[in-house]
Amino acid sequence: MSDALLRLRDVTAFYGPAQALFGVDLEVRAGQVVALMGRNGMGKTTTIRAICRLLPHRSGEIAFMGRDISRLPPHRAARLGLGLCPEGRRCFGNLTVEENLLATARPGPWTIERIAALFPRLAERRAQLARTLSGGEQQMLAVGRALATNPRLLILDEATEGLAPAVRREIWSALAALKAEGQAILIVDKTLREMLRLADACVILEKGVTVWSGPPSALTPELRDRHLGV
Ligand code: ATP
């Protein structure tokens, strides 16, 4: 038995009849930041959906804290400590910043006050409706909302997409602060440089299969060229 927080072995997934994952292996240990990488359409978001139980399970192992979660409904998986910040933000537009955070809040170290301290812009806009926030502020709120669940594993799918460089920097520095606190994070992001600076381990997907995993320092130019197209 490994001491993995999250462990996927040979996971497959389908959208209707179309197979999207053919054998994903992935492990996140406590306190680790793991970067899930691969070119467009290789299965990163689908892997995250499978972990969070947003896709029906077909085969393979999905274990969280040593427990098989492959047949749990999404809300039960969330309750065990999977905190998802989904692609495309999806905040509740007609609720205020504070109400959005309270809507998902569960007891734990990440109180609304601490989230506000991590993202001062949110603190300033506590009473503002989420739909009137800028894109960057909505993204901060989406991260904050996932944190408010006090997840054992924070999962971020393209949390910096479409944001101005200065706002991205704010998010990366917040993530660095989270890592320093020992928060485990599984991250998908297109800005490789910042992601690799944060990551302890990387997993590369190619057509729905894990083709490589290892530390960022072992990610050679050849691997990047072959699997990431950079
Ligand atoms: P990107 O970086 O472009 O977001 P990704 O690595 O996250 O890509 P996925 O979104 O997981 O890739 O897609 C994996 C495969 O599953 C692709 O071939 C995609 O076309 C397919 N797919 C994704 N969502 C659906 C869906 N709702 N219905 C059918 N096929 C889908």
Automatic annotation (TrEMBL):
<keyword id="KW-0067">ATP-binding</keyword>
<dbReference type="Pfam" id="PF00005">
    <property type="entry name" value="ABC_tran"/>
</dbReference>
<dbReference type="GO" id="GO:0015807">
    <property type="term" value="P:L-amino acid transport"/>
</dbReference>
<dbReference type="InterPro" id="IPR003593">
    <property type="entry name" value="AAA+_ATPase"/>
</dbReference>
<feature type="domain" description="ABC transporter">
    <location>
        <begin position="6"/>
        <end position="230"/>
    </location>
</feature>
<dbReference type="GO" id="GO:0016887">
    <property type="term" value="F:ATP hydrolysis activity"/>
</dbReference>
<protein>
    <submittedName>
        <fullName>Branched-chain amino acid transport system ATP-binding protein</fullName>
    </submittedName>
</protein>
<dbReference type="GO" id="GO:0005524">
    <property type="term" value="F:ATP binding"/>
</dbReference>
<keyword id="KW-0547">Nucleotide-binding</keyword>
<dbReference type="InterPro" id="IPR027417">
    <property type="entry name" value="P-loop_NTPase"/>
</dbReference>
<dbReference type="InterPro" id="IPR017871">
    <property type="entry name" value="ABC_transporter-like_CS"/>
</dbReference>
<dbReference type="GO" id="GO:0015658">
    <property type="term" value="F:branched-chain amino acid transmembrane transporter activity"/>
</dbReference>
<keyword id="KW-0813">Transport</keyword>
<keyword id="KW-0029">Amino-acid transport</keyword>
<dbReference type="InterPro" id="IPR003439">
    <property type="entry name" value="ABC_transporter-like_ATP-bd"/>
</dbReference>
<comment type="similarity">
    <text>Belongs to the ABC transporter superfamily.</text>
</comment>
<dbReference type="InterPro" id="IPR052156">
    <property type="entry name" value="BCAA_Transport_ATP-bd_LivF"/>
</dbReference>
